[in-house]
Specification:
Length: about 180
């Protein structure tokens, strides 16, 4: 059992976190620390990848510590390659779901910061705009005109930014 599993079992679940854990895409974000006590099989399903990753990292650390005398470039390359391969394999197994790009980790129990980061991610990915546009059907012609207008505005804003940077650069030179 990994230290992460022990730590999360020590956290006291609150009603707010339990509600948030069951709501929408945030269920994966908060499920491990906020969900009410689940049966042992469900907890094992959730925590087995984390346990194996923690075990592999600790084994790798002890392996590297025991081989401290053999620090040839070939050995270092081989060790680092193996460590990276193990990390990537575990990351794929743990984070392979459709909500990974729309989630933020809760660090030290700071939910407010996690929600701010999640809000920034959603704004950057324009999720709310897509949801609003998907509420109603948009005909082919108006959609084409809207996309063309958005493209033109983006290009125009880019050109204005370039010109402002050029003027700022010239002014800095003293002209």
């Amino acid at each position: 059992m990994s230290f992460l599993r022990i730590l999360s079992s020590r956290l006291a679940p609150s009603p707010i976190l339990s509600y948030l854990a069951s709501a929408g895409p945030l269920h994966r974000l908060l499920a491990t620390s906020a969900a009410p006590k689940a049966d042992q099989q469900t907890q094992d399903t959730i925590w087995n990848p984390v346990d194996s990753a923690t075990r592999q990292v600790s084994e790798k650390i002890t392996h590297v510590a025991s081989k401290g005398a053999e620090k040839t470039p070939a050995n270092l390359w081989k060790e680092q390659s193996e460590y990276t391969r193990l990390q990537l394999a575990d990351m794929e197994r743990i984070t392979n779901d459709p909500y990974i790009g729309r989630s933020a980790k809760v660090v030290d129990g700071d939910l407010a910061d996690a929600f701010k980061r999640l809000d920034m991610i959603l704004a950057r990915n324009k999720v709310r705009k897509q949801l609003k546009l998907a509420e109603r059907h948009e005909k082919k012609g108006p959609k084409r005109r809207r996309l063309e207008s958005e493209r033109w505005r983006r290009l125009f804003a880019h050109e204005v930014r370039k010109n402002v940077q050029l003027v700022t650069k010239i002014r800095r030179r003293g002209a």
